Amino acid sequence: MNQIKTTITIEPMRPDVWRLRINTSTYNEAGARIGRDQKYATVKGSRDAAEMERYKRLLGQGVAQASQPAAQIARDVTAQAAVSDMTLGAYADGWLERRLLQAMEGQTARNIKGLVRLYIQPAFGHLKLATLCRDQIIDGFLPLVNGGPRGAGSTDKVSSYHKRNMSGLSGRALSPRTIRHALIKLMAIVNDASDAGLCSLKACDFKAVKKALPRTMSHKNKVKAKALSDEQMARLLEVVRTHWLGPVIRFALASGCRRGEMCALQWNAVTFKGDEAEVSIHQSLADDSQRTWIKLPKSDKSTRSIGIAGPIVAELRAMKAEAAGVAKALRVDLGALPVFPNTRGNMINPGELTDLVRELMAKAGLVGFSLHSTRHTHASTLLRNGFNVAAVSERLGHSNGAFTVQVYGWAMPNEDIRLARGMALAMGGPVAANDEELEDEDELEEAA
Question: Is the Cβ–Cβ distance between 435 and 415 less than 8 Å?
Answer without folding.
Answer: no
